Sequence to fold (218 residues):
Amino acid sequence: MKILELKTEKRTTKGRKAVKKLRDVGQIPAILYGHKQDNVMLCLREDDFTRIMNARARMLYLTFNNKKESALIKEVQYDNLTDRVLHVDFSRIDLNERIKLRVPVELHGESIGVKEGGVLTHVMKDVEVECLPTAIPEKIKVNISELGMGKSIHVKELPVLDGIQYISDAEAVIASIHQVVEEKVVAEEEILAEPEVITKKPKEGEEGEEGAKSAEKT
Fold:
């Protein structure tokens, strides 16, 4: 597995104004932490990080001050409006130590249940795994072609991958097929119709309310 390198620089300034200046010149503020070592504030070129993201790399070598450290992309913060990267968190890792992380789950194939008119629900979009940094899968591909109506795929049924251990609950549902529930359509006439008024018929010898009022007037 080829490990990509990302050139970074140490930064000493922090705060809103400082990071805004970085972003204005195409730089991304970042931080490196972990392994009981001091946190290091960094900055990196936006286009360099875009290259890393396009390659779908999860781990890489960070270079700064003539040093090279292996790190995991832990968190990426995006601008809600522009999708521009605002900040990146890197976590130090040892290439010989197993790590835990979440990996995307990708469904492929057309299920039998969908062909029969069912609806596919992708419940878990990613699962937690444990593996060596050099064995991190880009994604977990799941074939749903044989998934029938009313059936589900669980974590315990995910494909076996060399060096990969699934940490998520084995009984958790990854995807399922269910029938479409038809809603009862109420006719407009039923909605607008006035309720029927039921009146009690007076017994023989008794007058109704209107009759009693008439008698009082007379």
About this structure: The chain has two domains: 5-93, 100-178. The CA atoms of residues 110 and 189 lie 42 Å apart.
